[in-house]
Structures are given as C-alpha cells and as structure tokens.
Amino acid sequence: MSDDTLVVWDESLLDYDMGEHPLDPVRVELTVALARELGVLDRPGVRLVEPEPADDATLTRVHRPDYLDAVRAAPRDPLFAGYGLGTSDNPVFDGMHESSALIAGASVAAAEAVWRGEARRAVNVAGGLHHAMPDRAAGFCVYNDPAVAIARLLDLGAERVAYVDVDVHHGDGVQEVFYHDPRVLTVSLHETPLALFPGTGFPDETGGPGAQGSAVNVPLPPGTDDAGWQRAFHAVVPSVLRAFRPQILLTQCGADGHRMDPLADLHLSVDGQRATYLALRALADELCDGRWVATGGGGYALVEVVPRAWTHLLAVATGDPLDPATPTPPGWRTLAGHRRPGRDVPLRMTDDIDPEHQPWQPTGEPNSVDRAVAATRKAVFPLLGLDPYDPRD
C-alpha cells in the first residue's frame, strides 16, 4: 500500500453553486487557498488529482434513473417541480447534473484509490452531500456522494465499510441507503432531531431487519460544547467501530457544529473539530491499516470557520497536524476579505479552546450529554455484543 495521501481537487468542483444560498462554494475555494498557503498541499506524498464525473451506472447504484433524468431536465424547464428540486433548500441551477456528478466522481475516485492501495488516505473537501435520497434532493444535496462512494467500495469487494458523520445534521441519506445492509456501519453524531433538520437520527434508529446494529445515532442537545462532544464521541464511536472491524473508514466532516455557524446550535470550536479529525485518523490507523476517506459537508460560517476547520482536516490527513497557534497567512486574509467583504477574517488557526474532556461514566449525576450517550449505548451496544453500562466497551 502506498503511504501517499490523495487530494481530489479541481476548480470545477466549485461549479456546484446554488446562487444566493447558504451552501456557498467560496468556503471550498478558501479552504484550498488556505491549505496551499500553509504548505499542506505541497507536503511529500501528497498527490492532487482531478476528478471525473460519476457516470450513470455509478450514480444509479444509489439514485433512481428517473431522478437522474429529472436532475438533467430541471434547468431547462422554468416551471419544473418535483423530486425535491426547485425549493429554497434545493434550487435548480445550470449544470446541476454535471456539477453534482463531478462531486460524486471525486468521492468515488478517493474511495477507489484507498481501496486499491494507491493511497493510504484520500480527501474530497467538496463532497459530503449526505442528505440526498435515492429519489430526491434534500438539504442542499443533489447526489449523495458518500453513499455512491460506499456503493462503489461494495462493488469492489469490500465486506465491512464504516461511515462516521460528524456534521451537525444527521447523515440521513447515507443511513437510508444502507439501513438494511449489514456490510455498512453508519455512525452519526449530530444536534438532536427535535431541534434541527432533518428530524431523524434518534438512538432507536439502529438498522433494519438483518442489519440490526448497523446504524448508530448520537443526538446531542443544543449548546453542546467541545468537552461534551468529545465525551460523547469517545463514549460511542471507538467502541462501535472496534466491534464492527471495518476494512475502510469513510467520514463526513461537516464544520457546521461550530459555535459561529448560523444554521445550528452546537458550540464547538475549530480546536474541537481538529481533535475529532485526529481521533478519526487514529481509529483508521488502528482498525483499517490507515485506510481513510474524508469528505467535507456542511458549514456556513464561510470565512470564519470552514476554511480553518477543513485545512486542519487536510493537515491531519496528509501528515503532521498544524499547530493551532499557526497564523493565517496575510495573502489568504486578503483573498478572504476580497471574496466576502465585511466578514471577520481569523488571524490564527485556533479559537483558543482546550477540547479536553472527562470520559463518560455510567454512574453519577448525568447531564444532558450523558443522557444522550446512555440512550445510544442502551439502544445499539447490545446489538453489537457490547455492554452499554461498561465504560471499557
């Protein structure tokens, strides 16, 4: 296996552009620019490759053919309605099929390279469109690139694929696609569906008949900070991954759990997000011989948060993590200020938050995070042969 890290990138990935919309491609542009200026993309063993669009045969492993037809047709029909398209969440835009297929192709290329041993890790920061369903667009997502990449891995012979989603929103589309497939473990940490789109991701969603225990959901209360998030993550994710024994790890690394994100109510910092990426890499190293495919996802603090968070992700994937105290380069600050005038451009790669946490214990006076952890462990741990009350599990 090669020790290289593949970064799938081309400026054409920015063409997934819904216009005046929260999912603004400038966040991806500024991420790549920041990573370049900090030298992350010039490290030894880092290979940048241009993506190719996923073809219909690849996309229809997840999406219905009539839905693909609708995505192609919608930009030509000003009165188009249906399939979740033409809404405020998913407006129709020119080149919608082509740009969506390219993002899916980028995630497929990343997964193929890691599975075939051409790279140990791979990243598609433009990916992570985890809400798209087989027959409709949802939550700013047209084609579900993580699900398409997982389906491709199964076609290549993978028997145990783990998917961990740390976006603030439940990874509902990926869970839906593989809910009845015991070969795929989907794990999602997110803000409670009682307070946030898409309204799914409760602890009792544990997998369909024949695949019980293949879906793991940790819904966290609004206001959860780094310490609570890390406490929940480490109380659930390592245990379920070790029980499942994945051959490869895919992650959706949405940055919208940050306290500055305008669309959600968790209180994470970029320091806490960096700690999560380090934990995911360590689990891939422990369980999958390092095989890790990472995508971006949500994130709507376009200048203040997303570029820093995903540059940390790229650094963790490509080698040594960046020192949180690293200054953001002056050239990048100028670019960010030009692209989004009036935004507060961060001066350093840190929020000056210590993401340390106290490990979860089944005893004592539980807080709201502990109750969420206990609910998840009670629902799914027995299905995986784990003891929900033993903190060693």
TrEMBL record:
Q: Which family does it belong to?
A: Belongs to the histone deacetylase family.
Which Pfam families does the UniProt entry name for this protein?
A: Hist_deacetyl (PF00850)
Q: What InterPro entries is this protein classified in?
A: AcuC, HDAC_I/II, HDACs, His_deacetylse_dom, His_deacetylse_dom_sf, Ureohydrolase_dom_sf
The UniProt GO MF terms for this protein read: histone deacetylase activity; hydrolase activity
What is the top-level taxon of the source organism? Bacteria
Q: Where is the Histone deacetylase domain?
A: 21-315
Gene Ontology terms: biological process: acetoin catabolic process; epigenetic regulation of gene expression
Q: In which pathway is this protein known to take part?
A: Ketone degradation; acetoin degradation
Q: What is this protein called?
A: Acetoin utilization protein AcuC
Instruction: Please list where the region (Disordered) is annotated.
Output: 321-344
- Quote the PANTHER family the UniProt record gives: HISTONE DEACETYLASE HDAC1, HISTONE DEACETYLASE HDAC1-RELATED
Q: Could you tell me the keywords of this UniProt record? A: Acetoin catabolism, Hydrolase
| Classification lineage | Bacteria, Bacillati, Actinomycetota, Actinomycetes, Micromonosporales
